């Protein structure tokens, strides 16, 4: 039995933020590999003239830092221990929460459930780390933990042991999640405002072997993607 850490983040998740697409993502690896991978990332920062404490974010991608971010994408795809799953909601304007007796917060956590449920195996144990958003979200995080455990018949929480909110600067792996879902949101919003960001998206397409426009196979283990359609909740 192996113990895995899962690092989750989201982009453009607010209901009225005037952005078209919403994305959520998770990177996971065995707990025993986390420290080594984090140190490789810090060394990569130093090699590109950045502070070891530099926080990786999609919003910080620029021509001046393009070489670093390209090396970081290569590190992800060249590290067998690392896995990614993303969920994209291409057009939030099509959401009809009232039809499902929910609000946008409830939908947000339903999407996290959709993101995570395919990652789990009953043969392993997990700790899930979410990028902290606000002090009011702890109750819903506990609800998400309960739903995930129930879906896996893990009523004693032997497998999905905890869900914890952390701040992104505390985890290099959470920061890579931010980078990948930022790329997905940028692509699905049809933006072309940055040549550096467009270069990274082309690199992700090439290394993943996917167009980023449609679902991968459910069993894809390296770069797994679901482009969500409303009919899935009908």
Can you walk me through this structure?
This protein is an alpha/beta fold and 234 residues long. It has a single domain, classed as Ribonuclease H-like superfamily/Ribonuclease H (Nucleotidyltransferase, domain 5), CATH 3.30.420. Helices cover 38% and strands 19% of the residues. It has helices at 31-47, 66-78, 104-117, 138-151, 172-188, 195-208, and strands at residues 3-11, 22-30, 83-89, 125-131, 160-166, 223-227. Helix 4 (138-151) links the parallel strand 4 and strand 5 (160-166). Helix 2 (66-78) runs parallel beside helix 6 (195-208), helix 3 (104-117) crosses helix 4 (138-151) and helix 5 (172-188) crosses helix 6 (195-208).
Which key features would you list for this structure?
234 residues; alpha/beta; Nucleotidyltransferase, domain 5; six-stranded mixed β-sheet; 6 helices; 6 strands
Tell me the radius of gyration: 17 Å
Largest sheet, in brief, is: 6 strands, mixed
Strand order of the largest sheet: 5-4-1-2-3-6
SSE order in H/E notation?
A: EEHHEHEHEHHE
Task: Give the domain tally.
Answer: 1
Q: With helices defined by DSSP (H or I, 4 residues minimum), what is the helix count? A: 6
**β content, as a range?**
15-25%
Intertermini distance:
37 Å
User: Could you name the ranges where pLDDT drops below 50 across 5 or more consecutive residues?
Assistant: none
Topology, number of strands: 6
* Helix/strand structural class: alpha/beta
Average predicted local confidence, pLDDT: 86
**Highest-level CATH class:** Alpha Beta
Shape: globular
CATH superfamily: Ribonuclease H-like superfamily/Ribonuclease H
CATH topology annotation: Nucleotidyltransferase, domain 5
Q: Roughly what percent helix? A: 25-40%
């Amino acid at each position: 039995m192996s113990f895995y850490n899962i690092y989750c983040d989201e982009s453009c998740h607010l209901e009225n933020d005037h952005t078209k697409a919403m994305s959520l993502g998770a990177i996971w690896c065995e707990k025993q590999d986390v420290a080594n991978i984090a140190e490789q990332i810090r060394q990569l920062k130093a090699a590109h003239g950045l502070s070891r404490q530099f926080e990786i974010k999609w919003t910080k991608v620029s021509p001046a830092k393009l070489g670093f971010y390209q090396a970081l994408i290569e590190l992800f795809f060249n590290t067998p221990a690392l896995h990614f799953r993303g969920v994209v909601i291409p057009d939030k304007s099509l959401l009809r929460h009232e039809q499902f007796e929910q609000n946008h917060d409830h939908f947000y956590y339903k999407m996290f459930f959709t993101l995570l449920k395919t990652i789990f195996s009953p043969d392993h144990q997990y700790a899930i780390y979410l990028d902290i958003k606000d002090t009011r979200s702890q109750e819903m995080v506990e609800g998400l933990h309960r739903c995930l455990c129930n879906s896996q018949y893990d009523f004693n929480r032997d497998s999905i042991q905890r869900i914890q909110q952390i701040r992104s600067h505390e985890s290099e792996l959470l920061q890579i999640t931010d980078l990948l879902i930022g790329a997905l949101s940028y692509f699905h919003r049809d933006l072309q405002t940055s040549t550096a960001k467009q270069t990274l998206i082309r690199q992700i397409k090439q290394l993943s072997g996917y167009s980023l426009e449609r679902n991968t196979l459910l069993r894809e283990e390296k770069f797994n993607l679901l482009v969500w359609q409303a009919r899935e909740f009908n």
